[in-house]
Design a protein that fits this description.
The complex is a heterodimer. Chain A is an alpha/beta fold. In chain A, 36% of the residues lie in helices and 21% in strands. The longest helix of chain A has 15 residues. Chain B is globular. Chain B has a 5-stranded parallel β-sheet, with helices on both faces.
Amino acid sequence: MDTMRDRFVAVTTRLLDEDPRLAVVLADITAAAFTPAQERHPDRVVNVGIREQLLIGAAGGLALSGMRPIAHTFASFLIERPFEQVKLDLVHQGVGAVLVSAAGSYDWPAGGRTHMSPGDVALLDTLPDWTVHVPGHPDEAEQLLRHAYADGDRNVYVRLSAHQNAAPVAVEPGRFSTVRTGSRGVVLAVGPMLDAVLAATEGLDVTVLYAATVRPFDAAGLRAAVGERAEVVLVEPYLAGTSANEVHEALADRPHRVLGLGVPREEHRHYGSIAEHLAAYGLDAPALRERIGTFLW
Amino acid sequence: MTTNATAGSVTEIRSGSRAQARPEARFEDLPALMALMTGAEKHGPAATSTLDVLWVLYDRVLRVGPATAQEQDRDRFLLSKGHGPMAYYAVLAAKGFIDPEVLPSFGGYDSPLGHHPDRTLVPGVEISSGSLGHGLPLGVGTALGLRAQGLTDAAVWVLVGDAEFDEGSNHEAVAFAGSYGLERLHVVVIDNSSATHGWQGGIAQRFAAAGWSTATVDGRDHEALHRAFTAEHPGRPHVVVARVEPKENH
């Protein structure tokens, strides 16, 4: 199976041929894979080198000129490093871009903390009007990228990861999907967390919702799913509790409980593999089953 | 201070691109317009350091006016150094982009005219600025976008300050634009010697080393500015370092 990042290159390369407004800005990461697209569209596939402030600034300028820019690098260098550019060169200018990240929270554990960005979605939560897609499968990534490129001039973040589910979910951008129904609470799995959540809740009387879009947060979808027991477990592949406030707002008119599971805030000074890190964070299926069960029963 | 005696005739020659400009507006009118902006104390010295450059650009160089401010092939002026925008607002008022009657509201709650400009509030303002080091990367992207759309005549101008040039984001943009040969990108650096550690050897050499065309001129001499602004620079971006009297009280 291809990765979400492979699919990003393939679908973007195709769409550059079809939509003259699209322009890709790179900062060396993934530049080699975009070489064929760059040869066909030298003015619309631009690698600025290892310059992430310029990456976002140039995307902002492209948008000001009327283009639909796509900026891409690892999440650490796309959101965290040039965060003021994201705030000012896009949002404050009143223009939009599609930011497509790779590597996420824990994709390259052997690379250590410098290449981990569990706080990216929480950072974007400090800014208005972002759409945030967190696909869990290359097919979902393709669908959501296509949607993002055509999503007017909105600011859209598409968070791609090497961690993915075995099969895609038929998602509707902006809406949660119901994967399993039960009566003792709702477990909301985000993107690549779905497979572990399904394994963890096997045989448990819970509803499992799936989110490949987390902002805007599908409050109506959550409200419709909670039933009489307003108890929600969030399982997110980035900072634990990032969406807890969204759940509180969605359920503000009724007593409710929320457990936010995800990547811990503390630095985890180990290398190794994705699987080892998910286990260490309490996000593999056995740990999730225990934590979900303790909370709901 | 040098003033520009030939502005009137130049305006007539290029009147086709500035049909909406107020024919009566002259450089000598700008101090009175600036005086309409109360609360000028905060950014006074910085504001006047840009006055001559702004006037020559809007009067004789930029192909944009109130009637063409939304045209896709217009020239773009990006005020990166958003501090001290009174001179900018005065020039925009003199050229008919904004009503001079709004100038006294400067800095007020309902005013469109902040101490740093907001492009969504002021006609003709291309970028919202204030935090230093954002205009040049935005200018790079704008020039890339115009080029990708085949709009090869439209020029992009970015005004930065010599102290603003401390910000590393400028250097990302200078190195890239020079190497890329982004010909329609232009920068004017207002050099009032306000950078805390200075720029040994001058600012222009930073651009020259990156492959830019450069000129360093007296920032109060309108003819010298005009010559530098209109110099040919095929295949390369162009910077004009406009030197003015050192900033006081810093």
